[in-house]
Amino acid sequence: MTRQLTDRPAAVAEAGPALRRRPKWSGRTRRDFFVFLALALPNLVLIGVFTYLPLINNIYYSTLDWTLGSASATVVGLDNYVTFFTSADAAKVLGTTAVFTLVTVGGSMVLGLLIALALNSKVRGTTFARSAVFAPYVLSGVGVGLVWLFIFDPGYGVLAWVLRGLGQQSPQWINDPQLSLVMVIIVYVWKNLGYCAVVYLAGLQSLPQDVMEAASLDGADGFRRFLSMSVPLLSPTTFFLLITTMLSSLQAFDLIRIMTPLGNGTSTLIYEAYLQAFGAFNRAGYSASISVVLFAILLIITVLQLRFVERKVHYS
Amino acid sequence: MGMNLDRRHFLGLAGAGAGAAALAACGGPSTGGTTPASEAAEIDFSGVKPAASIDFWTSHPGKSQDVEKSIIAKFHAKFPDIKVNLVTAGANYEEIAQKFQTSQAAKEALPGVVVLSDVWWFRYFTNGNIIPLDGLVKQLDIKVDDFQKSLVADYQYDDKQWALPYGRSTPLFYYNKDHFKAAGLPDRAPKTWQEFAEWAPKLKASSGAQYAYIYPALAGYAGWTLQNNLWGWGGSWSNEWTINCDSAESVEALQWAQDSIYKDGWAGVSSKEAADDFAAGITSSTISSTGSLLGVLKSAKFNVGVGFLPGGPKVESGVCPTGGAGLGIPSGVSKEVQLAAGTFLKFMTEPENTAEFSAATGYMPTRVSADMTSVLAKTPQIKTAMDQLAATKVQDNARVFLPGADQEMAKAAAKILTQQGDVKATMTALKSTLEGIYTKDVKPKLKS
């Protein structure tokens, strides 16, 4: 392609409009393009039908006053967005989303890195420890939620039993909205830090050992080497984790649904969208507008991360 | 391949695809007018032949899967030309409602008969999702007069019958007889909450249980069980369509409940299921559905007593709400399916079948003529639930007719009972929320 465009004969450029038409693809280029289509088109069609079509549908529904289950709806333009952003719930939902996302992303990454550092040491039992740390990540969120609900139950949960042994009453983890959020965050971080640990471990194991040894010879102690060498060299891993865990946290659903079905104190954007349409209110149009807000936030965060944060990443 | 596909053609195709997607977005609900409620006109089924097969969507209330299978087997024996497919459409009323309403949106795969709870049927009515049963009642000679009056009245609106009672329950006062005996208390439920407040310190001191009384889990229909407290103090969630949950009486009722936890310290709030907490011995008493009765009797390792719900300082009796689920028929299926569904609905609610259902679950028999002799011989506690029916009241409109109201009531209750929130301020905020729901989601759909 490039060769065709740059090597265009001068005679063609100087000729009349008929001759100035874009040249036909060569047989080989066309063949390559068909191969590309054969390989990519099925996936593009699937993505189009199952991702972009629902996305467009959702944007359309967000302009309707539509009760789920009703055969008819009224076009209301941007009213649903105005209602959301002017309601008292908006600040609460956005605040919950921000707290949940920041704490779970920060918690998973920091704890994941610390665990990765521990797992990176050459002592017996690290293989088992790596599997044990990663296991919760692949477990079903529903199962994890149910087990942890039993642990947190203030009546007959394991935690309440331990606290009673210490002469303390169990906090109302499930009924108190603020504690519900803390409870869900703890479980979410527990479930997901294995992912961060494994990715960080891979990053740590690929650090250039000669550079680390040189720093060591120059007198840098372990903490200094970690802070001045490992952390900057791990920045591509950190950047990757930042994007993936943030997207994942913003879309967290199963644990919240199982542990706090009312969403009392744990209503993040995605859960609020679910509650509004399917929970009890059946406001399908309003729910769609919340989904669009979430989509916009995800898009903006991803673009900002790619545009600005990536500049800080140190690629060796 | 003779087609000359270059980048321009590809981009053209992509554009066409995007256009098709945009056009597809114009699917979904029609935007031609306002949402109609269910058509109240009587449907004429004369000359209609029942469909050969229908689906029955249920959440198996009260762990009723086995008894539902048993009744369906009897139906197949009596009506071999109609096959009923038992479908587990959710684990509770909310999940079954979610599936039913999503199917309405998808406009396909609707059942013949669906289990609908006290807080959902009215929404189906306002959305035009269910048919009035009056035509079927006439055609199939369904004895509506033989149903328990208060239960069948729950599904009447606009002079039509929109569902029939199925797994119907009321809250019941459960108490640990052993704890009551150890505390020197009479072997009965308290007549009023004031009487129980006198008993509670003795119970807590002698029983060793964490609580003398545990309020039902807030996620488990708090608006339903707290209805008892509100009525006992002369308050309510609403009076017809006027929301009055912030009245002095309602505030006083919930202030008393808050004090029982924080000031007096003898009550707690269940996190998941009060009946399970009670059966586990965590509390000496609680309020739970009659549908929990058999489960409690099976799992409790102590003598279980049941009684009427206590009254309050203003109203001593008639302070028990009805609840549970009924059976309805969707409007989006053919008349043939509706007729087959009506035949099955009639059979499911026959006196002998409601007695069998009651024996297996603890739910109340919905028919006056149901012979409960053998059931009561086996489980005499069901008699208390049956006797309490005479003292039940239809729930306040705000709880059963406003979409999402039950969840908002539960949130308000959580603030009052688990965060020691200001009762008056919380109920004033709840009033505003409920009024907003009524104005936006219900009022436009009601006939003026």
What is the CATH T-level topology of chain A?
A: MetI-like fold
Sheet with most strands of chain A: 2 strands, antiparallel
For the termini of chain B, the CA-CA separation is 66 Å
Radius of gyration over C-alpha positions of chain B, nearest whole angstrom: 25 Å
Look at the helices and sheets of chain B and give the structural class: alpha/beta
Percent helix of chain B: 40-55%
The amount of helix of chain A comes to: over 70%
Mean pLDDT of chain B: 89
Instruction: State the name of the first-level CATH class of chain A.
Output: Mainly Alpha
Major sheet size, sense and barrel closure of chain B: 5 strands, mixed
Q: By CATH's scheme, which homologous superfamily of chain A applies?
A: MetI-like
For the largest sheet of chain B, list the strands in their spatial order.
2-1-3-15-6
Number of strands of chain B: 16
Rough shape of chain B? Answer: globular
Helical run tally of chain B: 19
Low-pLDDT runs of chain A: 1-13
CATH architectural arrangement of chain A: Orthogonal Bundle
Mean pLDDT of chain A: 87
The tally of helices of chain A reads 15
Task: Describe this entry's structure for a reader.
- The complex is a heterodimer of chains A (316) and B (448).
- Chain A has 316 residues and is mostly helical.
- Chain A has one domain (81-312): MetI-like fold, CATH 1.10.3720.10.
- Chain A is built from 15 helices and two strands.
- Chain A has helices at residues 2-6, 10-14, 27-61, 79-86, 88-119, 126-138, 141-152, 158-165, 177-205, 209-217, 222-233, 235-250, 254-259, 269-279, 284-307, and strands spanning 64-65, 74-75.
- Chain A has a two-stranded antiparallel sheet.
- In chain A, helix 12 runs antiparallel to helix 15.
- The longest helix of chain A is centred in the N-terminal third of the chain and has 35 residues, at 27-61.
- Chain A is flat, with a radius of gyration of 26 Å.
- Mean pLDDT of chain A is 87; it is low at 1-13.
- Chain B has 448 residues and is of the alpha/beta class.
- Chain B is 45% helix and 14% strand.
- Chain B contains 19 helices and 16 strands.
- Chain B has helices at residues 7-24, 65-78, 93-106, 121-126, 134-140, 149-153, 177-182, 193-207, 222-232, 248-262, 274-279, 293-299, 335-348, 351-361, 373-378, 381-388, 397-401, 405-418, 423-442; strands at 53-58, 83-88, 113-117, 156-157, 160-161, 164-169, 171-176, 213-215, 238-239, 242-243, 267-269, 285-289, 304-307, 320-321, 323-328, 392-393.
- Chain B has a five-stranded mixed beta sheet. Chain B has a three-stranded antiparallel beta sheet with strand order 12-7-13.
- In chain B, a hairpin with a 2-residue loop joins strand 4 and strand 5 (160-161).
- In chain B, helix 18 packs antiparallel against helix 19.
- Chain B is globular.
- Chain B starts with 6 loop residues before the first helix and ends in a 6-residue tail after the last helix.
- In chain B, 54% of the residues are buried.
- Chains A and B meet through helix 3, strand 2 and helix 14 of A and helix 1, helix 3, helix 4 and helix 18 of B.
